[in-house]
């Protein structure tokens, strides 16, 4: 009997251990390891339950401002302590019917129950920001931090959890963009901005796959003689209802959605095709076509081979092509960047740093990278006749170019006095509305044929400053 009882007891112990293990597995599946708060899965389950029970709920997405910088500064272990302290504060600052979860990193979500009005939810959000925002002592230092909150009020039965989280995220971005340390509610204005973005994305996809993109070309000349030196290819979207759109109106969406890679392929092929046609049409022609390359396209596999194929297919010598990249793009992954740029150089292709001066280039990198040309950003060029700071920046960049043996091209020349000032400072290449707007290939033909842009016309214009705001591109 004793043996039998011992066997039963041991079975019970085993059973209990199994229950405990299952409970632990269940707990792990729905909780965040670090903070013990609910995790993403638990949040979605809870949100679904609340929505299907028609409880009026507000979703608050909470995110620390500049957490990455703090984490790097504090070190990983202390960064974790910061997060657990924040989680504890969130836990104590929500009411019993509310629900708190950590999505990962420094992103937390709070479901506020019975959210009657926007004002009430905003008041709760600012209360949470206050409680969480008090300085925290970590490793003997007082760490101060702020956070932002994006809010969406769930309409009864109308939305699903993931959509709501996405909308709260949009509101969070708006809060960060408005200067951080605040709470923003997802409203009609944000909804329209999101819808507009989706429409742009869909339309652009169709334009890339169909026949909706165009290239315009803006001449670059020798400012002393009017000689045509290069043309910059700029993408345009022939929009079915809004007409011809400049790159500036859709490039951000193209970049954020990754569409810029396919768009860039089209641009390269179209630019090479056009250049080949010009070379046939104007046998005496010698110029460089400058093509903009986005960071995403630069990072694609075998980009050098892609450029080489474009050149080969259209029988274009490498030194007829220049790739324009922003400083930001070339400063990431310096090793890989240098390898790709050397690949371009081996093809004879020039590399230009676009919008130079706006991206905090490291001078060491600049010296190391095989770059041929700097494009002075419009924002400085505009001010050189009126703003001593702009003039000083432009002057410094021109000197830097000379010292590093890099050519310098001024962008955005809109007024005659700007040309005089640039020449005085030692920059003799430029482009801008004063010289020519970006135009279609057929409109460029007379200039290509002449090889110059007539200087009398330029001179006449140089005495009067051109105001380009609102001019169609
Ligand atoms: P970016 O490469 O610096 O091009 C110069 C921009 O300034 C162009 O705008 C051009 O139309 C405009 N511009 C030219 N002259 C003047 C002037 O005198 N004054 C002023 N205020 N602006 C002038 P766009 O075509 O809207 O392009 C905007 C940006 O979009 C470009 O800046 C470039 O970064 C990007 N982009 C344009 N085409 C392409 C492309 O084919 N591929 C990629 N990846 N990016 C492109
Ligand atoms: Mg450019
Ligand atoms: Mg530029």
| Count of discrete alpha- or pi-helical segments spanning 4 or more residues | 19
Give the strand order of the largest sheet, numbering strands 1, 2, ... along the chain. 8-9-11-12-13-14-15-16
Strand content: 15-25%
- Uncertain parts: 465-473
Query: How many E strands?
Result: 16
Distance between the termini: 97 Å
pLDDT averaged over residues: 91
Give the names of the bound compounds: ligand C2E, magnesium ion
User: What general outline do the C-alpha atoms trace?
Assistant: elongated
Rg value: 30 Å
- Which percent bin holds the helix content? 40-55%
Largest sheet: 8 strands, mixed, barrel
Question: What structural class do the secondary elements suggest?
Answer: alpha/beta
SSE layout and pairings?
Blueprint: H1 2-30, H2 40-52, E1 57-64, H3 67-74, H4 76-93, E2 99-104, E3 107-113, H5 118-133, E4 136-138, E5 141-143, E6 147-153, H6 161-177, E7 183-185, H7 188-209, E8 213-222, E9 228-239, E10 243-246, H8 251-257, H9 259-281, E11 288-292, H10 295-298, H11 303-313, E12 321-326, H12 327-331, H13 334-346, E13 350-356, H14 363-368, E14 373-376, H15 378-382, H16 388-403, E15 407-410, H17 416-425, E16 429-430, H18 441-450, H19 455-463
Parallel strand pairs: 6-7, 9-11, 11-12, 12-13, 13-14, 14-15, 15-16
Antiparallel strand pairs: 1-3, 1-6, 2-3, 4-5, 8-9, 8-16, 9-10
């Amino acid at each position: 009997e004793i043996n039998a009882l011992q066997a039963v007891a041991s079975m019970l112990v085993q059973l209990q251990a199994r229950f405990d293990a299952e409970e632990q597995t269940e707990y792990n599946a729905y909780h965040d390891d670090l903070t013990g708060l609910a995790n993403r899965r638990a949040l979605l389950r809870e949100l679904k339950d609340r929505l299907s029970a028609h409880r009026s709920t507000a979703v608050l997405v909470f995110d620390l401002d500049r957490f990455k910088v703090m984490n790097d500064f504090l070190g990983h272990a202390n960064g974790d302590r910061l997060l657990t302290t924040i989680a504890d504060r969130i836990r104590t600052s929500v009411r019993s019917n509310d629900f708190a979860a950590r999505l990962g990193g420094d992103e937390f979500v709070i479901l506020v129950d019975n959210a009657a009005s926007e004002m009430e939810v905003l008041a709760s959000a600012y209360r949470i920001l206050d409680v969480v925002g008090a300085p925290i002592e970590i490793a003997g230092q007082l760490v101060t931090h702020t956070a932002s909150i994006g809010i969406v009020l769930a309409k009864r039965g109308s939305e699903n959890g993931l959509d709501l989280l996405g909308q709260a995220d949009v509101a969070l971005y708006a809060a960060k963009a408005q200067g951080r340390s605040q709470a923003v509610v997802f409203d009609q204005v944000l909804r329209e901005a999101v819808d507009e973005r989706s429409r742009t994305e869909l339309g652009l996809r169709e334009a890339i796959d169909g026949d909706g993109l165009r290239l315009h070309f803006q001449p670059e000349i020798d400012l002393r003689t009017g000689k045509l030196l290069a043309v910059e290819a700029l993408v345009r979207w022939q929009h079915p209802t809004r007409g011809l759109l400049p790159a500036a109106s859709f490039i951000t969406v193209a970049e954020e959605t990754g569409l810029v890679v396919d768009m860039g392929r089209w641009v390269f092929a179209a630019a090479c095709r056009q250049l080949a046609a010009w070379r046939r049409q104007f046998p005496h022609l010698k110029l460089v076509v400058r093509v903009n390359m986005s960071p995403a396209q630069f990072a694609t596999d075998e980009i050098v081979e892609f450029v080489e194929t474009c050149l080969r297919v259209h029988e274009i010598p490498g030194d007829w092509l220049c790739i324009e990249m922003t400083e930001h793009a070339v400063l990431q992954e310096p090793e890989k960047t240098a390898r790709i740029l050397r690949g371009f150089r081996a093809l004879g292709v020039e590399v230009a740093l676009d919008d130079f001066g706006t991206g905090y280039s490291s001078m060491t990198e600049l010296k190391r990278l095989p770059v041929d040309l700097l494009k002075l950003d419009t924002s400085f060029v505009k001010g050189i006749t009126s703003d001593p700071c702009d003039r000083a920046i432009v002057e410094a960049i021109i000197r830097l170019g000379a010292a590093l043996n890099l050519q310098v091209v001024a962008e955005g020349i809109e007024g005659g006095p700007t040309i005089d000032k640039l020449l005085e400072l030692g920059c003799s290449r430029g482009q801008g509305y004063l010289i020519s707007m970006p135009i279609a290939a057929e409109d460029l033909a007379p200039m290509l044929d002449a090889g110059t842009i007539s200087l009398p016309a330029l001179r006449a214009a140089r005495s009067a400053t051109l105001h380009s705001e609102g001019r169609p591109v």
